[in-house]
Amino acid sequence: MIRVTLSEGLPTTRKKLHERFYNHYKERYPFLPSRVIEGSYIVAGRIVKGFRERRKRGLTRKDKPECKRVVITIPNMANWRFNKVSVSVLTHKGWVEIPLKFTKQFARYAYEGWRVSQELKLRLVGRKALVWSTFEKEVEVETKEGNYISIDVNENNVTLAIFENFKLKELRRYETGLGRVVINYSLRREEITKGRSAEDELIKKKLRK
To answer: Which domain holds residue 194?
Structure first.
């Protein structure tokens, strides 16, 4: 799908990718569930979109992207379920339950009025599964003088200060860990430009600090 999308210059919108790939793969591989085809072209579209942006900005000279990790994308909740303690995924052998590891941030989303979005992403690491899901929350906003939100974006967290009638009503902090991600990326790029592999033991030692 990635090769065809690039060679044919296809747009990476879900509608265009569906028109190009769905019937083709359904006829060629009739045993494949629809969710597998849909998840595949969604991931392919995102990879191609990111690659085109990087090439446009001069960040890569390659003629095609490299995919080093396999990520399973399930586009809608008809094929997976969330019950706040686990995620169940529909496979060719039926429903498979994946227990979730709790964190304070996850508990806040799961039990404070947020709901999961339609899409789920999975990656298998040995006998474990990494799960990515987005939480959504609808809020009604009423404008009133003296009511406002102040947002402070820091290296590893985002802090929200909520004011009502010019008085601080609530203060929330969301840990992102973005600082470590940026540092890790910087270290990897620095060593790669020196001709060293990102899997080199010296780089791994730096990243553990």
So the answer is: 178-207
Instruction: Examine residue 173 and state whether it is found in any structural domain, yes or no.
Output: no
Q: Is residue 155 part of a domain?
A: no
Dihedral sign from CA coordinates of 80, 73, 138, 98: positive
Taking the complete model, does pTM exceed 0.85, yes or no? no
User: How many structural domains does the chain have?
Assistant: 3
For residue 44, give both structure tokens: 């392919």
């809020």: which residue's tokens? 139
Bridge partners for 130 per DSSP: 123
Decide if 191 is inside a domain.
Answer: yes
Residue 15, Cβ density class (10 Å: 0-12 exposed, 13-18 middle, ≥19 buried): exposed
What are the strands of the beta sheet with 157-164, ordered from one edge? 148-153, 157-164, 167-175
In the block, which residue shows the tokens 């601080």?
168
Per-residue pLDDT tens over the stretch 13-68 = 989 999 999 999 999 988 888 888 888 898 899 889 988 988 888 888 888 887 77
Assess if residue 157 is contained within a domain: no
